[in-house]
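If your schedule permits, I should be very grateful for your opinion on a structural question. Please examine both parts with care and let me know of anything in them that strikes you as inconsistent. The record follows directly beneath this note:
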Amino acid sequence: MTTETIKVSGMTCGGCASNVMRSLKAVDGVNDAQVSLERKEATVDFDTSRTSKEQLKSAIQRAGYEVVN
C-alpha cells in the first residue's frame, strides 16, 4: 500500500468533501480515502498494482473538482 496526499481545490462545504471521498473510494485499488475540507486535501491509501496517483487525480476531476499540483 502507498499513501498519497493530493491537494484539491473547489471544495466549499462538507458535501463537497464527501463527494471527493466517495469518488476516490470508488476507484479500484483504493483501500481508504480521507478528505479534509479545512486543509483542502485528500489522503489516499491505495494499491499501486491496481491504480495510480494519476487515476486518483482523474477521479477527483470527474467529480468536478480541481487537483492542485
User: Anything to note?
Assistant: Strands lie at 2-9, 30-36, 41-46, 66-68. DSSP finds two helices and four strands in the chain.
